[in-house]
Amino acid sequence: MSLLRVCAFAKCLSRRSLFEKCPVRVSLADRCELCVSIIDGGVRRISETPLLLQRRNISFVIPKRDDTKKRILEQSQLLDVLEARIQQLQSDIVLDVHHAKVHFVKAVLSGKGPKGAPKEKSDTPKSGKTLKAASKSQPSRWMAKLTQEKKNKLTKQQHLQQSIQKNVKEKPAAESKGSKSSSTLPGTSHKTISKTAPLIKNSRRMKLSDEIRAAVLSAEAAAMAHKESKNKQKGSKNPVPGKEGRKQTVTEAQSSAEEQAEEQAMVEELERRLSQQVSQWTSPNSWQRLQDDSEAAACGDIQLSIRSYLEACVFSGAVERAQRFLLSQHRVMSRRKHLNTDVYNIMMRVWAKKATLNQIGRIFILLEEAGLKPNLGSYCTALECMGRNPNCSPKVITRCLSQMEEDGLSVDDLFSRCVFRQDERDMVLKAVHIVQPDYQPSLKASTTECSSSLVHDFYTQRSDHQFPKLDFTQEELQRRFRLQLSMEQACTVTIDSVEAAKPVTEHMAKMRELLADQRAQWQKILLQALRDSKMILANTNTKDYRLNLYPYLCVLEEREYVDIMIQSVANLPPSGESLKILARDLGNRVYTKYSVRQKHQNQMVEKLRNIYNAYTDLLAKDTKEYDILPSEQWSKLEADQSSGPSLQGGETHWPYIVSLELGTYMVDMMVKNLKINSDIVNPAFERKRIPILYHMYTFRSTRQVGFIKPHPILTQMQQDAMETKLTFDSYVIPMLCPPVPWTSVKFGAYLLTPAKLMRTVEGATQHEVLLEKCQNLLPVLDSLNQLGNCAWSINKPLLDIIISIFNDRGSDKLDIPPPMSEAPKIPHFNVQDPTYTASEKAHMKREVITAKKKCSEMHSLRMDALYKLSIANHIRDEIFWFPHNMDFRGRTYPCPPYFNHLGSDVTRAVLMFAEGKPLGPKGLDWLKIHLVNLTGQKKRSSLEGRLEYANSIMEDVLDSADNPLNGKKWWMNADEPWQALGCCMEIANAVRSPDPTQFISHYPVHQDGSCNGLQHYAALGRDVIGATSVNLMPCDVPQDVYSGVAQQVEEFRVRDAKSGLKIAQVLEGFISRKVVKQTVMTVVYGVTRYGGRLQIEKRLKEIDEFPKEHVWDASHYLVRLVFSGLKEMFTGTREIQDWLTESARLISKSGHTVEWVTPLGLPIIQPYHRTRNQVLKSAMQHINLQISHDSKERPDTVKQKNAFPPNFIHSLDSTHMMLTALHCYSAGLTFVSVHDCFWTHALTVDTMNKVCRQQFVALHSQPILQELSNFLLQKYCTGLPAEAKKKKYQEYRRLMLLLAKVPQTGEFDLQRVKESTYFFS
Question: Where is it mainly found (predicted)?
């Protein structure tokens, strides 16, 4: 019976929602009271019919017992209470929005509504009365609670309204009209608002814009009255007697009124100024634009899924499936809203290839039905179809072109903005020539002039530029292009492992043979399983509108899917891998291969070859000099060779959820089908087929995570076989030719492998949307191209030494992970053994867990080092390049993930510039100073002092170079030992050469910023003390901010120790630079006191002599002193940080994410939103995705405000790096960077230092904070709709006033930076 009752209530709720959509509530304002009372009952019966009918239905179905009826009554009451609560909440919202229209009436003591308000009475449901009619039982505590809550709320509203009447005297004329109604406050007015809001909203929408000022005044008056009432309550405890008290009250009221008037005048002035300004980056109505953007984002993920599905269908030849799917989406309005013109264009493109004009005509009709306008892509496909159709009438083409003109599109737009595939461009031109025989496309090369004044001279005045050439002939570069192209076409690369090639034993040979046989069997099994599953998927999709995986399993050859799966088994670590990570990697590998195949199908490869061969003319040393940049040359060549397909193919990137679902499907297939004989290693075991992969669950913190783990038998076979080959995706290996220059957001870096300009969290699309709208990205792209054009080579002698230690037993001291043979043995014990006590068992369990964790960490580190060293060894005789991209703040990174110059000391040490330059007169000195910097010593010494120290240890330096493993081993004690050894070798070779000034050096010399984040803060605030602390001010010796803070903390400690504080006395002798360094360094990047305490705690634990029982108290005490010391030293920094934090807090509270634009024009948006859970349902398990970047969700205020200061500073340091890169390039220098550490040849260190300082001064000579303030004001405080002003005017006003109040700056002269030796050193 309970199931039947649940069903009945479900019907009740569904019918209720259906009835509520019907327009049954009518206005009864003009009826007489008798009519009203009669009709009121009727309306009430209609409005309450669904629930009453359901109650009657239930009473028919369920036997009429007392307990049953009581339960039904209680449930009905609960429904009514919930409905009333919803209406109450709705009335709160409407009250906020429409309070300018409220007409208050006199309160009646009985609480009933006034006689003259039948309208309100009729539209208010009376659930209480209904219940009393149904039964005489008393109302439940729910009803009593709701009644009491209503009374409390009405009392508060009455007090508020009386305060408004008493204090607001600004508009007596307007008030007098409604004076009768304003004396009360009421239940009736509350109900009136809640029920008439829809009518008001619809009938008087046009008048809202005329009532802004009234709304503003009401909001201000309410806030003021509320504030005053609070003040009165506080002041009532200590009343001021007599006339003096009254005078004081009057004076205070007058002063607060003056302050408010002044503030209001300021707000009005800001509004006036903002309305007059024409922003370059926002439309006048930015609030409306923000709303449109969020609505577009809401459909973005679904549109992306639809587009990728259709393109996969078309690519695999399933055109009928694609057409059925599009029509099924179009037919249903709820699904049609997710379609845009580009989705329809996908099918138009298919029919254009088949020259079926009638099908394209039908899709144009569908576009019209959907309320969409054809775009350039639509007309392009229509003209292509006409060009392919020999019988097409010229009249049809003319009509198509004239329709284009009516829509504001020109024929030139077709050829300059459309993306063409295969011979589409030729077909479109053929169609146009039928009616305009002399037409030639006028192509505009993309030479967008940069608007930033920082690089204006760089782009316009090139007479003194010396763009560097690469040290290769044109023929050599073209040969390298062919090698890279073949590697990317294969999508994978197999290389030799650097693990010692031990003699092949009989057992090793047997294991290798067994593995090869098993893999051959697995391939056959997986191939058959894939075919079977595809057949099932193809035949079971009965509903055409549903997306399924079938098209994604058809975009590659079946054997390619199998190879990807077999490869993932070989790469699986013994401890297993998270299902989510494994599935994502599998899906991404399929997408990469699919993307490369698409480019082949679109006939892009041949055109790419032609353009690249011509592009090498700019780079090669045996060609003429050019005064244009790589991106400009590439764009020019692309414009010259415009026929054929577009290189910027416009393929749709698969959504993250699609890659994950496809990968999960493949993992499921592997787990179910891959098996092995249990006796394959040990014949003594019973033979049975066992899976080689297990799907299990483990816990990460408190979350349960799906895991895929290999069977120990498989792990043992792989370890015993000791295979000597490693297989990687092609993008993991550095490029063998110079990268394709970034010329747009979607094109650059690799030849065929897809690469993103901006690396983001999986699934985040808001960054890409912003970048595509941006028109001034040229300097950002050119700086990435400059970094990517640096050629690298391997330091072979150093690499051989590292590999020898790697293959011996590793070295913790030198950061070379030991082999797994050195891992701790995992203890085995029987949990059921009664000889062990409970505490012994618990202890042994902990030991097992610790040993397993240690083994897992060692394996991870060992494999990471193996990959890096094997890649380095594979390209030891090659010249190679690192293509670059950036994160959302503009910080740059090399694309190859394992081996690059951002890596550890080991990977940096084996990298050298491919091009060598003579040391020159000061180069050898710079090498010696760099060596001392790498040791970590002499940080407080001048450059002369460091050079003198280097000369004093030359014997150790030469010994290290000659006998690195058998000599004094001086280099091993350096902070960066391997780079120090490489530098020792370079110095030894230089001093032993006939003329050190002519010695050709390939070694990169580093210049590192002195606490670079604080440098930017000090420059922003023109803070003299802060600038001196971080070496912006010229000094004889380098200022060490970390030592300065440590010294100040020590002074505080001495003071507290004298006053008897115990923890201050315990810390005597333990406060050092090392203890505070990490906290000082990271406080500028937003570290909290909690995080700072953990950092200091870690440092204190490293000090053996420090009493461990005092670590907690000491870390709490020290973090407070560090923050206080920084606040005193960097006052300007703190003000700016607080202003940025509070701005971000108010912006995110208003419902928007924080955006800004760097001085070079790069748009940045913080992708921090409230986390939502999305469940991916698969046959294996449901994967719970925690998505924190969804732009449909509200911003995460805490993350937004905490991240804004560090992210803003990161965007500035990346801008400084990009400016330095561009101007070093124009000066002919080799330049690369690791964020705020700049690298160049020893010969050009002085030139780079000069450029670095000039660009820092140029950057901070811009009014950065004022421009940020202007941008944020125009972004978030202009074009505010009337409803928004009424609802949140106070927040809007506070935000406006805060953004306009830019922090004051000090007296520091920025030009002094140019003279500062230790700014970067």
Answer: mitochondrion
